[in-house]
Amino acid sequence: MADREREKELLAAVEGAGPEARVLAMTDRGEELGTVAVELRDGTLHILQMRAGEYDFSRKPQGEEAFILDTLLRSAASWGENFGAGEIVTAFPDFFDFFKARGFASDDSHAFTPMSTIVRYE
Q1: What SS3 class is residue 64?
Q2: Running along the chain, 122 residues long, what does each successive block of 10 average in pLDDT?
């Protein structure tokens, strides 16, 4: 995220965000559509939080919400791959099969997958 003050503000509200956490933002014509807070720890990309507009995760994401969340997930994976991550874990369990549909396994506390599930080499 280019706006470091906005990034600090967002990270202050993310439980478990360490000093190396970053925020990636999806924008359209300057409007912020969603964000994903990430942190690389010991070769693992941790997705700490995902936000898509006003979507509150209380129901299955629809249409644009699903598109934004999927794009943020793929952006986070690409970012992690650039910094050597070998796997992805979330700080929250699978919600409405979102991660499962993208190849993640999940348990009661988080979802997880090898990086190769999202980032593929051809």
Answers
A1: helix
A2: 89 92 95 96 96 91 95 96 95 84 91 91 64
> Which pLDDT does position 77 carry in this prediction?
96
Alpha carbon distances (Å) from 6 to 23, 26, 44: 9, 14, 25
SS3 letters for the chain? CCCHHHHHHHHHCCCCCCCCCEEEEEEECCEEEEEEEEEEECCEEEEEEEEECCCCCCCCCCHHHHHHHHHHHHHHHHHHHHCCCCEEEECCCCCCCCCHHHCCEECCCCEEEEHHHCCCCC
**Structural contact between residues 27 and 52, judged by C-beta atoms closer than 8 angstroms:** no
- At 113 the pLDDT is 95
